[in-house]
């Protein structure tokens, strides 16, 4: 078994780079390391089944290395060093870097889901619409100075500038169509810098598809305040639709930008996503679920009742 350390030196504020993690890994007893930069590609073909590939970076870096681990049957280790680190939140990793590196040396592993959108791997979330703006527009300087709050800053700066997207969402026998502000396809319990999906897990073999209706900004703003400040989701049906399925298809009227784990995949009109259960082995001892939340009563008025399937309860829209 070989230990690999793959480092994205541009991740986060740049302080948790190669020398930072190498010192803690040595203190934990991992002396022999094959160290490479994330921008390099020659290491990928040398990873063997059973190797441990540790990645120091954010969600985009983890995404890249996870693809190699799935292909080469290696075990992934995450050393959170990015802005959001949502995938790491699912794993309940220790905050102390030495304790974390000792875990990388242990035999503790968990198996998690991997999802694909039009053939592209994603571990956390794919976005269409307003949800793509933070990763596209937040500058590196903002990320370094403000961390995950840079995403909220970018979102606030762009409120009122989106006209919405028209699309048909199909998840098994559940179908809904209309104008949307944003559509998120989530694999785990966290995305967007720590936002939770209630009762979701990264090992449940399900995608959570959350679509926010293109309504008045006042209603969307109230949903945001309810979610972020009061710690509870808005009533289902008022502003959103939420489905769970192992696969989904979205047909858009016009092509729109799609992002996955913060990476821009280009403009698409047809989006298909699937998830495979437990195909990635990761260093860790436990998995974290989004906090449970009891269902709330559904209140519709004739003007905003959904045309087809009833949305499920308990998803955070942002």
Would you mind describing this structure in some detail?
This protein is an alpha+beta fold and 318 residues long. The chain has helices at residues 18-27, 59-72, 86-91, 97-105, 133-137, 140-146, 149-158, 217-228, and strands spanning 3-7, 34-37, 52-57, 75-80, 109-117, 120-122, 125-129, 165-171, 174-186, 190-191, 195-196, 207-213, 240-245, 247-260, 263-283. It has 2 domains: 3-107, 3-Layer(aba) Sandwich (Rossmann fold), CATH 3.40.50.10330; 120-279, Sandwich (Tumour Suppressor Smad4), CATH 2.60.200.40. Helix 1 (18-27) packs across helix 4. It is elongated and about 55 Å long.
SSE order and pairing:
Layout (H helix, E strand, L loop, with lengths): L2 E5 L10 H10 L6 E4 L14 E6 L1 H14 L2 E6 L5 H6 L5 H9 L3 E9 L2 E3 L2 E5 L3 H5 L2 H7 L2 H10 L6 E7 L2 E13 L3 E2 L3 E2 L10 E7 L3 H12 L11 E6 L1 E14 L2 E21 L35
Parallel strand pairs: 1-2, 1-3, 3-4, 4-15
Antiparallel strand pairs: 5-6, 5-15, 7-9, 7-14, 8-9, 8-14, 9-12, 10-11, 12-13, 14-15
Helix pairs in contact: 1-4
Task: Describe the structure concisely for a colleague.
The protein is an alpha+beta fold and 318 residues long. The chain has helices at residues 18-27, 59-72, 86-91, 97-105, 133-137, 140-146, 149-158, 217-228, and strands at 3-7, 34-37, 52-57, 75-80, 109-117, 120-122, 125-129, 165-171, 174-186, 190-191, 195-196, 207-213, 240-245, 247-260, 263-283.
Keywords, separated by commas or semicolons:
single chain, 23% helix, 13-stranded mixed beta sheet, two-stranded antiparallel sheet, 8 helices, Diacylglycerol kinase family lipid kinase, alpha+beta, 318 residues, ATP-NAD_kinase_N, kinase, 2 domains, NAD/diacylglycerol_kinase_sf, Rossmann fold, Tumour Suppressor Smad4, methylglyoxal synthase activity
């Amino acid at each position: 078994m070989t230990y690999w350390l793959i480092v994205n030196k541009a991740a986060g504020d740049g302080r948790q780079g190669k020398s930072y993690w190498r010192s803690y890994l040595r203190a934990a007893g991992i002396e022999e390391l094959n160290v490479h930069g994330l921008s390099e590609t020659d290491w990928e073909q040398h990873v063997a089944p059973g190797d441990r590939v540790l990645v120091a970076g954010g969600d985009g870096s983890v995404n890249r290395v996870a693809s190699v681990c799935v292909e080469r049957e290696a075990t992934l280790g995450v050393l959170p060093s990015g802005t959001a680190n949502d995938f790491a939140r699912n794993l309940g990793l220790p905050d102390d870097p030495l304790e974390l590196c000792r875990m990388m040396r242990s035999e503790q592993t968990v198996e998690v889901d991997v999802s694909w959108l039009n053939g592209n791997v994603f571990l956390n979330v794919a976005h269409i619409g307003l949800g793509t703006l933070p990763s596209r527009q937040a500058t590196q300087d903002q990320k370094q100075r403000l961390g995950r709050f840079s995403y909220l800053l970018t979102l606030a700066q762009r409120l009122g500038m989106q006209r919405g997207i028209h699309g048909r969402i199909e998840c098994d026998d559940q179908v809904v169509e209309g104008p949307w502000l944003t559509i998120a396809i989530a694999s785990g319990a966290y995305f967007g810098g720590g936002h939770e999906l209630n009762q979701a897990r990264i090992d449940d073999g399900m995608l959570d598809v959350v679509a926010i209706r293109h309504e008045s900004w006042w209603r969307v703003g109230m949903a945001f305040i309810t979610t972020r400040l009061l710690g509870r989701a808005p009533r289902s049906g008022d502003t959103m639709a939420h489905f769970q399925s192992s696969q989904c298809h979205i047909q858009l009227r016009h092509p729109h930008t799609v992002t996955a784990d913060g990476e821009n995949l280009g403009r698409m009109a047809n989006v298909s996503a699937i998830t495979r259960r437990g195909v990635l082995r990761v260093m860790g001892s436990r998995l974290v679920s989004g906090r449970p939340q009891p269902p709330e009563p559904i209140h519709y008025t004739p003007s905003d009742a959904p045309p087809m399937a009833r949305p499920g309860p308990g998803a955070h829209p942002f």
